[in-house]
Hints:
Radius of gyration: 19 Å
Strand content: 35-45%
Largest sheet: 6 strands, antiparallel
Oligomer: single chain
Distance between the termini: 49 Å
Number of strands: 10
Structural class: alpha+beta
Amino acid sequence: MPSSRTCLAAALMLLCGGAVQAQPEQTGWGSGYQMGTFYAGVSSGGVRLTFYCGDAAAAKANAAIKAGPYLMASLPRRDAADGIRSLEILIDGKAIRIPVTARSAGNMVELTWEPNRRFGVDSMRPVVQELRRAGTLSLRAGVEATALPTAGAAEALAEDPLGCR
Length: 165
């Protein structure tokens, strides 16, 4: 009969093993804190829009962590091109243009906003406020606009996603 330590070790390995397996993509809004970074965002069908805010102390201790606030969107290559310089966030039909840098990521294009002189954190705050009460939401970085769900946005964005801890 195995000892209680052996049983405990086996149970922990099962739990840990399950945690590292790929999880199915969640659809909708969510938020959390992981590895020194707060995140709040939405995903649906592989398309995502996520605010991140990396803790400066955590970033100092771990080069893999990016300090400060930033936004990342991921769109299918057919809807966005690598050379795109702006992302339009359409909230209730009103387009807000966000300056971004584009990077190819397989069959997706990742668009990243970081605060700068042209469009800083103070410019992004009204976007977050609008997202909290959005009735409709779409992303456009080319010709096609891709709709995302809005249910849960207010809860996910309740804490300031631009104010790092």
